[in-house]
Design goal:
The structure is a single chain. The chain has 375 residues and is an alpha+beta fold. The protein has two domains: 180 residues, 3-Layer(bba) Sandwich (FAD/NAD(P)-binding domain); 134 residues, Elongation Factor Tu (Ef-tu), domain 3 (Beta Barrel). It is 22% helix and 27% strand. The strands form five sheets. It has a six-stranded mixed sheet, with helices on both faces. Strand 17 and strand 18 form a beta hairpin. The N terminus is likely disordered.
Length: 375
């Protein structure tokens, strides 16, 4: 997955997103909003939906309407720790838990051998179903919400009369120069703020595969005094599931009955017997050797000390834990997709080395790599 920019808030800018009401009344009402949300990923979908539910005149601005609700990385929700977060979002009438209950292909509560406090509800999701349901909810079933397809290049800010704030944010400036005023601006830009993709030693600017990064907006935040950092994420190479030998891998079924995520639901949409299987394989000494012999062509390893990382890479695990074999979960991406997500194999080796590494895993000796992993 792409590098993600995160932001540290400087002292004295706590009221950055407060609104200067006097300046907004001079513009047409069509360009006035209570809440403007920039970015249409998971956070943007939840933020815009929540604001609209509260009766706020809300605008969601995204690069492409077709990618609203896109599951850019792992097609799953929940797990240890994250399952609790989803329950909290659901308790606040959020979307993700309810949408998971109508788009999952396998449901499983992790850590069931321990006490309920550490159980981790998890669902493997059909990418296309999830995105379709999220878009229907936002585009058709959410009053007070407008969705706009446009790049956001800058923030509208004005001098603050309040000594505790440097500037006041009163809207956004789109790529074509259009100014849109808003009482509150919420940035949910994900991997797009000066985002870049690393594969081996190759570096290219991108928000995610096929999408340009947001440079202007990131520059504005820096100019306002925010300190920008780099949160490194990571994705594994995607595998053609039709080329995997599942017979030599461990098959794992979903729960029977599946436990829904949302407190609003008594059951999920799929029958227990129709859930897809996940499979388990492991790394081995040959995989370890490929990684250790090629650290010099891996930009991620050389930058490991320059910032936090979300998903631990296979390189990091092998360097840290030596000869230990690591689990690789082969997870289906949907009912109508042959793409398999090898969870646990996040790496940024050059593409040809990733192919070698994949084919040293049991069951993947003849596997075809559809897309290389990246950082």
């Amino acid at each position: 997955m792409k590098s993600l920019t995160h932001i540290h808030k400087p002292k004295g800018i706590l009221k950055l997103l407060q609104f200067n009401s006097r300046s907004a009344h001079s513009l047409n009402r069509d360009h006035n909003y209570d809440v403007i949300v920039v970015g249409g990923g998971h956070a943007g979908a939840e933020a815009s939906s929540a604001a609209a539910r509260m009766g706020c005149r809300t605008l969601l601005v995204t690069h492409k309407k077709e990618t609203v609700g896109e599951m850019s990385c792992n097609p799953s929700f929940g797990g240890i720790g994250k399952g609790h977060l989803m329950k909290e979002i659901d308790a606040l009438d959020g979307l993700c838990a309810r949408i998971c209950d109508i788009s999952g292909v396998q449901y499983k509560v992790l850590n069931k051998r321990k006490g309920p406090a550490v159980w981790g509800p998890r669902a493997q999701i059909d990418r296309l179903l999830y995105k379709s349901h999220i878009q229907r909810e936002l585009f058709e079933n959410t009053p007070n919400l407008r969705v706009m397809e446009a790049p956001v290049e800058d923030l509208l800010t004005e001098s603050s009369v309040d000594t505790s704030a440097l500037r006041r944010c009163c809207g956004i400036i789109l790529g074509d120069g259009t100014k849109v005023r808003g009482k509150t601006v919420v940035l949910t830009t994900g991997t797009f703020l000066k985002g870049q993709i690393n594969i081996g030693l190759e570096v290219r600017p991108a928000g995610r595969i096929g999408d340009a990064p947001s440079i202007g907006l990131a520059n504005t935040l820096e100019e306002l005094g925010f300190r920008m950092g780099r949160l490194k994420t990571g994705t594994p190479p995607r595998i053609d599931g039709s080329t995997v030998n599942y017979k030599v891998c461990e098959a794992h079924k979903g729960d029977d009955p599946p436990v829904p995520f949302s407190f609003m639901n008594d059951s999920v949409w799929i029958k227990p017997e129709d859930q897809l299987l996940c499979h388990l394989t492991y790394t081995n000494p040959t995989v370890n050797k490929i990684v250790l012999d090629n650290l010099h062509v891996n930009r991620h390893v050389s930058e490991e000390v320059t910032g936090p990382r979300y998903c631990p890479s296979i390189e990091s695990k092998i360097i840290r834990f030596g000869s230990r074999n690591h689990q690789i979960w082969l997870e289906p991406e949907g009912l109508t997709s042959d793409v398999v997500y090898p969870n646990g194999l996040s790496c940024t080796l050059p593409e040809e080395l990733q192919v070698q590494l994949v084919r040293k895993l049991k069951g993947l000796e003849q596997a075809r790599v559809i897309r290389p992993g990246e950082d």
